[in-house]
Specification:
482 residues; alpha+beta; PH-domain like; Phosphatidylinositol 3-kinase, Chain A; 3 domains; 5-stranded antiparallel beta sheet; 16 helices; 39% helix; 17% strand
């Protein structure tokens, strides 16, 4: 068939694999050749243009599946005396390879792949002679593609990715990752519509980063050897808060509120829940810990990064009415947030209102021997459900910290997150008087009290072993094996 009768039969956008990188191409099937072009960026209102990457006459085109090209050849052992002959053969093969060039396209649709193959093979039956285009002919053909093209829009399936976003805020100039959205799979138009509760103490800037989720085969590698996901976009805004203010004293804003529904688990005393469930450790604690240990131990910022607020409330409602929850389908940060919320909403802290002042005094002791004796005696004075649950949680947090090199959660970071959650007293046991006669500064009250709560938990996290009486040892062993 003469080249003067060349007609366009089919065109489409495809992804070409070039030296391991994915490149978007526009391919054109003509009656006598296959042309691969790149769409140039439009600058300054210029008309659309193509840049020809390569072309192949249909008589020279053949198909090879990726699996076949990646197959490892069976190479026989060669005696040393035959190496020189083999080198000559390798040189000849190398020359033969240079005459041929293979190209790889990634086509996810089996239907589309089969259709292209059928169209090309059908047209090959009408082609009998190879040829080469001059540079002028190639330029004219490439320019004609702008008018001849039938596909004008890049299909969304070409660049569908698994996307998620993270939120970073600064605390007095130091930026920390505070929240992470769900991963939206196979889409270019994610619609997260998610809510987060983020502390903004000393914060002035909010950063938003959008990532493409990279899996084992495609993960990028940092210089220090860690794997990471690919940043697709980023931006930041200044934090501006516009609000009307109504003062609520700390006694009420941080008050532990008992639940009105004694059939639930949130806001219900831990002794009531364990007695009702006939368990040593509340079911909600075991479920959350087991799921986090199954797939969240290497999640960066686990327990520090906020989960989606709506997901946490959904989990809370499900546990409260004893509805079976598909934990494997929930975001791991939401599960971690649910566990923290459970302890935060206990009507009495896990360390109890009665013993809280003693823990605060014990951690302040300067004599290490006296401190250890005091702290262990106080711990073993906790009610059995509280003690067994705490030791179950303590073992879990230590295992989380063992993965610090990956999840960035040290013992101190975990103590900072869980200390106030496990120790913050109820309103009646707050150290701040209800009607102070002298002004109480933030440093004198809130900060020092939080620091004390963090130090108490950190002390127990740093202990290698916690000796327990034989009467309680069996319960503790049972709880860790649940």
């Amino acid at each position: 068939m003469g080249r003067t009768h060349r007609q366009l039969l089919k065109d489409s956008f495809m992804v070409e694999l070039v030296e391991g990188a994915r490149k978007l191409r526009h391919v054109f099937l003509f009656t006598d050749l296959f042309l691969c072009a790149k769409l140039k960026k439009q600058i300054g209102g210029k008309s659309q243009q193509y840049d020809c990457k390569w072309y192949i006459p249909l008589t020279d085109l053949s198909f090879q599946m990726v699996d076949e090209s990646e197959a490892v050849p069976n190479i026989p052992l060669v005696p040393d005396e035959e190496l020189d002959a083999m080198k000559i053969k390798i040189s000849q093969i190398k020359n033969d390879i240079q005459r041929e060039k293979s190209y790889t396209f990634l086509i996810s649709s089996d239907y589309e792949r089969a259709e292209w193959r059928e169209n090309i093979r059908e047209q090959q039956k009408k082609c009998f002679k190879s040829f080469s285009l001059t540079s002028v002919e190639l330029q004219m053909l490439t320019n004609s593609c702008v008018k001849l093209q039938t596909v004008h829009n890049i299909p969304l399936t070409i660049n569908k990715e698994d996307l998620y976003c993270t939120l970073e805020v600064d605390s007095f100039g130091y930026f920390v990752n505070k929240a992470k959205t769900r991963v939206y799979r196979d889409t270019t138009e994610p619609n997260w519509n998610e809510e987060f509760e983020i502390e903004l103490e000393g914060s002035q800037t909010l950063r938003i980063l959008c990532y493409e989720k990279c899996y084992n085969k495609t993960k990028l590698t940092k210089e220090d050897g860690e794997s990471t996901d690919r940043i697709m976009g980023k931006g930041q805004i200044q934090v501006e808060v516009k609000l009307s203010v109504k003062f609520t004293s700390r006694e009420f804003s941080l008050k532990r509120m008992p639940s009105r529904k004694q059939t639930g688990v949130f806001g219900v005393k831990i002794a009531i829940v364990t007695k009702r469930e006939r368990s040593k450790v509340p079911y909600i604690v075991r479920q959350c810990v087991e799921e986090i240990e199954r797939r969240g131990m290497e999640e960066v910022g686990i327990y520090r990064v906020s989960g989606v607020a709506t997901d946490i409330q959904a989990l809370k409602a499900a546990f409260d009415v004893n509805v079976s929850v598909m934990m494997s389908e929930m975001d791991v940060n939401a599960i971690a947030g649910t566990l923290k919320l459970y302890f935060r909403e206990l009507p009495e802290p896990l360390f109890t209102d009665e013993l809280y002042p003693n823990f605060a005094e014990g951690i302040a002791l300067s004599d290490p021997v006296a401190k250890e004796s005091c702290m262990l005696n106080l711990l073993l004075s906790l009610p059995e459900p509280n003690l067994v649950t705490f030791l179950f949680l303590l073992d879990h947090l230590k295992r989380v910290a063992e993965r610090e090199s990956v999840n960035k959660m040290s013992l101190h970071n975990l103590a900072t997150v869980f200390g106030p959650t496990l120790l913050r007293p109820s309103e009646k046991d707050s150290k701040i008087p209800a009607n102070p006669t002298q002004p109480i500064t933030m440093t004198d009250s809130w900060s020092l009290e939080v620091m004390s709560q963090v130090q108490v938990l950190l002390y127990f996290l740093q202990l290698e072993t916690i000796p327990t009486p034989d009467s309680k040892r069996q319960s503790i062993l049972f709880s860790t094996e649940v």
